[in-house]
Amino acid sequence: MQQILLTDPGYGEVKLAKARAKGGYEAFAAALKRNPEEWLETVRTSGLRGRGIGWLVHNKWSTVRSGATETKYLIINAHEGEPGSFKDRALLERFPHKVLEGALLAAWGAGCTRGIYYTDVAHDDALEAFQRAMDEAREANLLGDNILGSGWDFDIKTSVFPGDKYPNYVYISGEETAIIEFIEGRRPLPRNKPPFPAEAGLYGKPTLVHNVETLAHLPGIAANGAPWFRAMGTAETPGTLLMSVMGPVNNPGVFEVEAGTSLRTLLEDIAGGVIDGGKVKAVAPGGPGTAFIKGDAIDVPIDYSTIASAGSQLSVGATWVIPEGMCLVEECIKIQRWYERMCCRQCAGCGMGTSVIYSNLTDLRRGVVGTEYLDYIMDVAEWIPGQGICDFVERCSQPVKSALTLFSEDFLQHINEGRCADGSYSLVNRKFFDPTAQDHGEQDMPYRP
User: Fold this and answer.
1) Alpha helix positions (H), 203-327
2) pLDDT for 434
3) Whether the predicted pLDDT of 433 surpasses 60
4) What span, in angstroms and rounded, lies between the C-alpha atoms of 285 and 320?
5) What is the pLDDT of residue 429?
6) In a shared domain, residues 114 and 201
7) What's the confidence (pLDDT) of residue 13?
8) 245-260 residues labelled b (16+ CB within 10 A) or e (exposed)
9) What is the model's pLDDT at position 409?
10) Taking residues 183-195, what's their average pLDDT?
11) Within a domain: residue 437?
């Protein structure tokens, strides 16, 4: 497979000279000489989807570009607070100029006049790399006033959320409207939508919010055209995807795969399979905030619609592997403890629901409740979605609902005997990366080109 994002097995194009030697910024310079509408049409034809929710990129751009105000913002969302996701940091630390060129192309296509790079204080290596890239770009007239003599002014400032001081906001501060609230000087709490940021975002102006991986795809599309991009992946999800594989596998890391690659190929061939020859019991394709898929159902292609048809979500591709021998009750408690702590409590239903699920799971774990609690926990998990402003309420309920449906025997084991099937409380879990650890932003994942 052709690698289009993770193109260098070493440290990538960290320096501007190396990036330009490999064609960096040539596509951007060419785009500046064209009508922005032509570039927007190229992106539309490419079918590029935002590497998160999966919305078509050109729809956002068109909305921002058609905004009535002259000032329009681009926010580079480098927060990456989803547990277990490391793909954006892999790009920023090794290919910062690819991301920066993508940001420039996005701003040009959407008509943005100002940019903001937003991240968490824990991601200091990525911030340092991107800051150096911006400094080099300014010196080369690739950023700032009258870029490359085009008459277009565009510069980027940085905004860093102090997650070390406000740990309970570490997750929610990455939601796009919470980002806007923080930049405007308020607590990072999600806003009601509509209006969406593309319509009225930062300071009430049209605002384009993209994550790092989405931006990194743009230079390749600009250089090679939409047909080149569409030749990879699937009709529904063209191109490649970055997948962060975590858990007790032989080769954990960040991998670039062509959309349509099966989940089994990713886990067994690329990530090396479960350690000690074990088998996959369950996998959450998009991370701990997505529904589980059973280990015998992983022959599913990786793209947004197919993963959704399988009952889960691709999200940011933070693929969490649960091997046979691990207890899903323990894993759900781990997830719910984290979500209960990360809930911002802005919405009463969300705050109450996360706490109720967590407390009842801990009672169930000890075997002090009956089977009626399975129905009660499921009822609450099904009630939570729609009880809050943002999708936090959706994400915290998905793993529990799927675990109750697919692995009811694990829950019955605890109800009947007050322990996991092997007599422990899944102590084996502690040997491996915990995607919901409080300091997950400071942990590292290997980069796998």
Assistant:
1) 212-216, 218-224, 226-230, 263-264, 304-309
2) 54
3) no
4) 6
5) 38
6) yes
7) 74
8) bbbbbeebbbbbbbbb
9) 95
10) 96
11) no
Contact yes or no for 202/76 (Cβ under 8 A)? no
Say whether both 276 and 318 belong to one domain: yes
Amino acid (one-letter) located at 338: W
Alpha-carbon gap, residue 422 to 436, rounded angstroms: 23
Q: What is the pLDDT of residues 359-377, one digit of tens each?
A: 999 999 988 889 999 999 9
Residues in the chain: 449
Structure tokens at 425: 């409380």
Listed residue (160, 199, 206) closest to 183, CA to CA: 160
At 361 the pLDDT is 94
In a shared domain, residues 248 and 332 = no
Average pLDDT over residues 102-107: 98
Alpha-helix runs per DSSP H in 234-285: 263-264
Number of domains in the chain: 3
* Alpha helices (runs of H) in 185-317, residue ranges in sequence order: 212-216, 218-224, 226-230, 263-264, 304-309
Q: Which domain holds residue 373?
A: 328-425
pLDDT for the residue numbered 11: 59
**Cα–Cα distance between 106 and 57 in angstroms, integer?**
10
Q: Which two tokens stand for residue 235?
A: 């009709």
Whose CA is closest to 384, among 353, 411, 339? 353
Q: Which residues contact 372 (CB under 8 A, 6 or more apart)?
A: none
Tell me the C-alpha distance between 174 and 271, whole Å: 28
What's phi and psi for 293, nearest 5 deg? -115, 140
Last residue of a domain, one of 212, 230, 248: 230
Among 114, 105, 116, residue whose Cα is nearest residue 61: 105
What's the mean pLDDT in 351-362? 93
247 Cβ contact partners less than 8 Å away, ≥ 6 residues apart: 320, 321, 322, 323, 432, 433
Q: How confident is the model at residue 435 (pLDDT cuts 50, 70, 90)?
A: low
Check residue 436 and give its pLDDT.
55
Domain's final residue, options 301, 323, 345: 323
pLDDT band at 442 (very low <50, low <70, confident <90, very high): very low
